[in-house]
């Protein structure tokens, strides 16, 4: 059964959005996008190359002077209209997300609402780009600052949140007065292109938002965005390895960068925790989008006094999962994005099993459902030597590690070279402060497994990158500070 959109015009095939117009690749080349759940064709999207992308960059540059000169309130109204278009078309956005990403339709609806919330949030931040008046040390001087847009921005987004990862970047960029060229993920281009259509309907001026797609040419487009002198800022969400490459490529043009990279989140359950709440939080964190999120729990540490109880309760919850096609309202978890993701998950499970881990549920592929399905899996008695302890699985596998003391588990949690998110459950107020401050990550969830919120700054430390998205800090990533000093202001008034 082929999904149907209420508004079929939102499915944009064989064209990208450049300078307010829908354009094919100059070469005429396209690539196929398949439903990860069924393997069936969703559609075809343009295989843009560097020439096509140069045209998008030129359009963004041409639109910048006019757009940056608009008031914050004018840009706020534009973002609000884009938000209204997204909410009015939320069902179709959710359908596109499930169709090309595979996540359950209920999760996709949640993402559509979450994605729209960034337009709402930054429409409210746009008029509030405050500067400062600074007391000068030189008599007669007056010093003040103003925040200005950094310029044309290159945005590179991942497939796991096809709508939200775009809006979380585009919204603050536009709020600041920047124009953008967004490279949409090849696995999930149609959600991005639907957002572009809604931007057009909302009256976003031509050239302000440009969205390009590619599969084979992804690397060369990334290199163009990072080396172009026209682009003054690059924001990337994806793997640490690619983030490091983009940072190297950006060096010669000294771009401003925001990098939201890989994670390996520790999830700690102390023996004084509310056990049922901890199980529910771990389930929500670990298995959201079948474990394909950068902030999902990857290493679950449980204190020895409650370890066996936790394993039993956690496993029982996973027994209630139903895996299948995302459009089936009864299913809880959909497919992985492609067969390479399945292979990595399987390798991690086999490695843990070989080194003494015990599978309490799952552990196998589900070929009867399709090539991209893997059973939600729980493995107990994990040890630091196993691959899951040091590598991000990005799949539906929960590895449970026993621990004895607070000092021990904080040390284990901080051994990773990445530091995006961390979680822990405890009812000891002193421990809450102590451990929250000790975890070497950018974001900490205390007694919760879900931390995403447009009002909350999102980002990591160490090899998880730098910069923050969302919140009042998110707009600062797209601004530069200009200092203005006025001299000769100290003459006294004449009587």
From TrEMBL:
Give one Pfam hit by family name: Aldedh
Q: Please name the CDD domains in this protein's record.
A: ALDH_F5_SSADH_GabD (cd07103)
Task: Give start and end of each Aldehyde dehydrogenase domain.
Answer: 22-484
> Could you name the Gene Ontology cellular component terms for this entry?
cytoplasm
Q: Which residues form the active site?
A: 260
| Molecular function GO terms recorded | succinate-semialdehyde dehydrogenase (NAD+) activity; succinate-semialdehyde dehydrogenase (NADP+) activity
- Assigned EC number: 1.2.1.16
Could you say which residues form the signal peptide?
none
SUPFAM superfamilies assigned? ALDH-like
Protein name (record): Succinate-semialdehyde dehydrogenase
Q: Which organism is it from?
A: Hapsidospora chrysogenum (strain ATCC 11550 / CBS 779.69 / DSM 880 / IAM 14645 / JCM 23072 / IMI 49137) (Acremonium chrysogenum)
Give the lineage.
Answer: Eukaryota, Fungi, Dikarya, Ascomycota, Pezizomycotina
């Amino acid at each position: 059964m082929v999904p149907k959109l209420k508004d079929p015009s939102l499915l944009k095939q064989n064209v990208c959005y450049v300078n307010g117009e829908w354009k094919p690749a100059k070469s005429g080349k396209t690539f196929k996008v398949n439903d990860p759940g069924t393997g069936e064709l969703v559609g075809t999207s343009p295989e843009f190359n560097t020439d096509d992308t140069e045209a998008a960059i030129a359009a963004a540059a041409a639109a910048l002077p006019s757009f940056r000169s608009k008031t914050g309130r004018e840009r706020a109204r534009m973002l609000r209209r884009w938000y209204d278009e997204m909410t009015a078309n939320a069902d179709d956005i959710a359908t596109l997300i499930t169709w090309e990403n595979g996540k359950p339709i209920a999760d996709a609806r949640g993402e559509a609402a979450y994605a729209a919330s960034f337009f709402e949030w930054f429409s409210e931040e746009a008029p509030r780009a405050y500067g400062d008046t600074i007391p000068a040390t030189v008599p007669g001087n007056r010093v003040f600052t103003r925040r200005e847009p950094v310029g044309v921005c290159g945005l590179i987004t991942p497939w796991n949140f096809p709508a939200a990862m775009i809006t979380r970047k585009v919204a603050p960029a536009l709020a600041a007065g920047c124009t953008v060229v967004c490279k949409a993920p090849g696995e999930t281009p149609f959600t991005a292109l639907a957002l572009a259509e809604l931007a057009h309907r909302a009256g976003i001026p031509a050239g302000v938002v440009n969205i390009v797609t590619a599969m084979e040419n992804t690397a060369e487009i990334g290199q163009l965005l990072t080396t172009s002198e026209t682009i003054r800022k690059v924001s990337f969400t994806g793997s640490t390895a690619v983030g490091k490459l983009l940072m190297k490529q950006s060096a010669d043009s000294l771009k401003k960068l925001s990098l939201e990279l890989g994670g390996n989140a520790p999830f700690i359950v102390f023996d004084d925790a509310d056990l049922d709440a901890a199980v529910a939080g771990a389930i929500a964190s670990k298995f959201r989008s079948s474990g394909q999120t950068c902030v999902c729990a990857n290493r679950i540490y449980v204190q020895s006094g409650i370890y066996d109880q936790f394993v039993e309760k956690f496993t029982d919850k996973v027994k209630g999962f139903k895996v299948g096609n995302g459009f089936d309202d009864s299913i809880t978890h959909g497919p992985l994005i492609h067969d390479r993701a399945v292979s990595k998950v399987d390798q991690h499970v086999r490695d843990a099993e070989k080194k003494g881990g015990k599978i309490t549920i799952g552990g196998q592929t589900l070929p009867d459902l399709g090539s991209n399905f893997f059973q939600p899996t729980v493995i107990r008695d994990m040890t630091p030597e196993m691959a899951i302890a040091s590598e991000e699985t990005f799949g539906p596998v929960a590895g449970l590690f026993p621990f004895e003391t607070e000092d021990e588990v904080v040390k284990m949690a901080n051994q990773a070279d990445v530091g995006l998110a961390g979680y822990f459950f405890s009812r000891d107020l002193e421990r809450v402060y102590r451990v929250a401050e000790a975890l070497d990550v950018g974001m900490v969830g205390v007694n919760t497994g879900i931390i995403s919120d447009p009002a909350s700054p999102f980002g990591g430390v160490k090899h998880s990158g730098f910069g923050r998205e969302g919140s009042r800090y998110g707009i600062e990533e797209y601004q530069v500070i200009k200092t203005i000093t006025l001299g000769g202001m100290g003459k006294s008034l004449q009587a």
